[in-house]
Amino acid sequence: MTDLDRTDARLLLALCDRPRATGVELAGDLGISRNTVQARLTRWDEKDALTSIDHRVRPRSLGYALQAFVTTRVDQHKLAEVTDHLRTIEEVLEVFGLSGASDMHIRIAAVDADDLYRVAGLILKIPGVERTNMSIAMSELIPYRTRPLLNRAATTPRS
Fold first, then answer.
1. What is the pTM of this model?
2. pLDDT digit string (tens) for 23-51?
3. Cβ atoms within 10 Å of 3's Cβ, excluding its own
């Protein structure tokens, strides 16, 4: 089921272009009422449709010049405990559960190579972590994006 409709997508695209626009400005730009804009914003909050603002902060701007991805094998009986422990490591940016040869995909940030080594060691010390494999991000070729999906949702009629 889709939580966002064409109007939502149009409004989100307008916010992508002008994140500081007021509800009045957005309503005028899109030809909808201020009440519609406010109702959509409220519904997004209630449905937890948007990520938090910290998702937009680049670790580099905080002094973390390196990013790496760590694929991890975990004792399945300790998956919840490993996840809880990863939450306590400040340099862990996100964790995805995987199917296949690895159980987790962990994105981490580090100040430099020595710091990266330290963070990798913290992950390896977690009880239940069996094996890790790290790849350093050399460059971000396509940053996180949803604009193409929003464009499609804004222009495709719902069936």
1. 0.87
2. 999 999 999 999 999 999 999 999 999 99
3. 10
